[in-house]
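Sanity check

After download, print the first record. It should look like this:
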Amino acid sequence: MKVPLLDLKQQYLSIKDEINDAITNVLNHCGFVLGPEVKQLEAELAEYCSVKHAIGVASGTDALLISLRSLGVGYGDEVITTGFSFFATAGVISRLGATPVFCDIDEKTFNINPKLIERKMTSNTKAIMPVHLFGQAAEMDAINAIAKSRKIAVVEDAAQAIGSKYHGRLAGSLGDLAGFSFYPSKNLGAYGDGGFITTGSDESNDLVRMLRVHGAKPKYFNHYVGYNSRLDTIQAAILLVKLKYLNKWHEQRRGKAKVYDSELKNIKSITLPYREEYNYHIYNQYTIIAEKRDKLRDFLKGKEIGFDIYYPIPLHLQECYKNLGYKKGDLPVAERLADMVISLPAFPELTEDQQAYVIDSIKEFYN
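Expected structure tokens:
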């Protein structure tokens, strides 16, 4: 049996006619750039995330970049963020000329540890950017309290977290702005790149909308040097179809997680994903902490079971950040987990037989 980490083809086949009709409709009206589907999707996403505004952009990376830019983040500024995330989290800070300041994580949730944030702050700190990693919201009350006391902004990196909840509040409504990704592997994935920004601020909404079209309002009247970062209309049409199924897919992922939790709980060499009782975890990834991780990885590969390592090198130890002066031992929790985490298949279309094969294989390895 072969088990992929993700099977996008099976998802497509389940909604094929709706997807094809949506694409054909765009081809018929030819409004390919910021067409009517983009506007409709933005309205539905704002409602879904319980926010005033949602703005479609070209990628999740651009969503973070433009969010920070709208706050005036630039040369000489510092942004505090996690050391354990996809590179875009830090890369967007650097692209604006600011400096990422990396903070260690909570070993249970993999999210930034709020208790460590204040010691990282300086007079140059402009914003805090927590990541809701793997689909579980960070400890936002504590983070927002720190930000408020210092009068700085909070930008949520919610790339993996659409639909996740913190004390009943949705990701994207917990900070000043938030950036989401429509990368195909996300719970709500496009058929290519895409992303969106949420905010409750009218001022931020207006500025973000200008920045995504070269800083212009109206067209050809450029107030800022902005970006060409518009969500494609065909992608918006696809996402409008998929958004209808998103909550169902969340529950299916949570169901797969529940099965793993039950079946793997007695393996002492594994630590299962931790979920705060007040969080609604959407399991963009089902990530375990595994002893002998690399040997397990090789074993699963031999069994033709899909997996991935998110993430093998913490951000502060990446080659491109040598100039920042971080060294091994600076973020001990992130460094230890980078050597031990592995993500297992947990996509909605995963069959019972496929999941049983994954579970039996892991038990075989540790026995």
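If your output differs, re-run the checksum step. Summary of this record's structure: The two ends are 21 Å apart (CA to CA).
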